[in-house]
Amino acid sequence: MTDAAAPAPASGTTSATPAKSAPRRLPLKPGEASGGARFFAGLLVIGYALIAMIPLVWIFATSFKSPPDSIAYPPEVIFEPTLEGYVNLFTSRTRQTAEYIESLGPPQTWYEELVRKRNMVISGPSRFADRYWNSVVIGFGSTFLAVFLGTLAAYAFSRFKVPLKDDLMFFILSTRMMPPIAVAIPIYLMYRELGLSDTAAGMILLYTAVNLSLSVWLLKGFVDEIPREYEEAAVVDGYTRLQAFRKVILPQMRAGIAATAIFCLIFAWNEYAFALLLTSGEAQTAPPFIPIIIGEGGLDWPAVAAGTTLFLLPVVIFTVLLRNQLLRGITFGAVRK
Amino acid sequence: MTEQTMSTPAPQQRTATAPGLTGRLRGLSDRAIAWLFIGPTMLLLLAINIFPLIWTVYLSFTNYRANQPGREVKWVGTRNYERLLGSEDIWGYLQATAHFVVWTMLLQVILGLGLALLINRGFRTASFWTTLILIPMMLSPAVVGTFWTYIFQPQTGIFSYIIDWFAGTGALDMIGAPHLAPWTIVIVDTWMWTPYIMLLCLAGLRSIPPYLYEAAEIDRANALQKFWYITLPRVLPFLMLAVLFRGIENFKMFDMVVELTSGGPGSVTELASINLKREAFENWKTGYSSAFAIILFVTVFGLGNIYVKALNRVKS
Amino acid sequence: MSHPADTRPRRQTTRRRIFRRGPWENAATGLIALGVIMLMQPFSFAAFGWSFAVILAGTVGFVIVSHFPE
After folding, report:
1. Is the per-residue pLDDT at C6 higher than 80?
2. Which B-chain residues 108-147 have CB contacts (< 8 A) with chain A?
3. Global confidence as pTM
4. Cis bond leading into B265, ω under 30°?
5. CATH number listed for the domain at residues A129-330
6. B156 — contact with chain A (CB < 8 Å)?
7. Domain residues for B171?
């Protein structure tokens, strides 16, 4: 991971090694955790984890139920799985008379067959795919910008004498704390004037600004951990500051940048308040759209569950795979593991 | 050109001689780089955060309505603030917010600290289960609110069914009943954010050097004494940090509750931010709601100061 | 708070002691906390009315005080 230090000409002489924190092990305190107590503790934790998972598993299961199954009493644990929820999520349908459906001839595809069983005809694609794509574009766009600007600012804050540094850093963090609705009023007015309402560009700018505070704080923590000797040696060897930044510091920051990026991406992906107030059509992201699905075919829970599943799945996978990288972001750098 | 300069200094002649100095001078000065690097960030934050904030302050002293752009804007002084702080309704919404904040924090501290203590005992596969427990807090609050409405359905929902099965309560209308709805949002928030408190408690627990326990062992301290005199003092700063952060977040709570109960039934779950959104974007009382926004903002900003102070203390 | 102020020359110490950050910061923190409690408590409507003034004073105070030397 720290091979990146190799191109630095100084690698031979400076004795400083990158601050690699040794993986912390669970401290076993003498006399405290006997075998039986540990077993019991494990049982309780597993119990909590299983109960906490019920809602998620339930939504996942519901996405494969048929609409009648989804509102059965008692709630059905065993059911015949169907993709109807997903078909309903991606299509818009109209109810037709049996004669009309008869006149259309046999269904061409498996999903048409599924829909016609409920006396419906597919009238076109739904808006879900568009909304999902908006979430992807806005998420990645704002993440890229926030991490790019954040890296530069973090480096400057970490290495240079900046007047009023502490005030600026606090100012940056405090922008993160503003209640979104409080900021939304003037931003709504501002975007209306500038023609940025309901555009992907407007949302990317907004999310970049919100994420920037976090990315500067987190990345500054990562830069602080890189020993100054690295660059100093590089500068002594004839690199300019900028070259030293590019060739020595950036490679060292890779892990930190990745962690920050994941965190910014998840924030932009999950954000709701701004999306609700500032987008209505074109640039609407998935979070304000998913609840609307309910209204569209009269309590179509499997479709809602399908949308929820598709929306939450990437985050769940990220969390499971990259847990340790995420922790630092969630806690504003208070947890360093 | 950069490649050139890169290859010139051979690792051997690595003393601060002429080539090193000229190399430094050829580049930008440190001060220029600092401003170049910080500038864009500051500009963006000024444009998207500070400018709007100043505008909100201005609007809060006017009777502006965003849905009537042609209407004459009048300066009304502090009348918006007086109306807000003299309104029993607003007081009620803030009490609803207080109920939400206090109970979520209390439950999450108990559950989170408990879980952290259990996990810290170090049983096998603990890491796997910890990861599972963390999942809820990474999800989109609005989507969480949406799918919990399904789980809370009074007749067909699984929550009511399970509770009824264990406690025989009959069908529970968690969203529609005024005496249950405030607890509904507390339950969902606790489900979602207990992992956060747990996480910070774990960080605190892992910062305790084992020799402290060894020393206590020699002094024949019992388990309770060890917890009280060693564990708790070390965990408390982290716990404080977590409670402050989540307390501020829940004071601003909007997305999850909007999708779950949208403030109802009546206004028992009408939290401050939800009412603010209603006044600003449904009733279009822009000036009045700007004043409300400023009240919430100053409160959050004040608490944020305390949070950053605590954060720096924990970090050092 | 635990900074050894007595290592500095005597005349400066008195001024530094008055404008030291710790106690003032704690006072401002207390004021903010009091204001937040006033804002959200269910007992006194009058206290609710004054809550914002208290929070504002505490917050402004905190910003000023945090620039005092340690």
Report:
1. no
2. 111, 115, 118-126, 129-143, 145-147
3. 0.84
4. yes
5. 1.10.3720.10
6. yes
7. 86-315
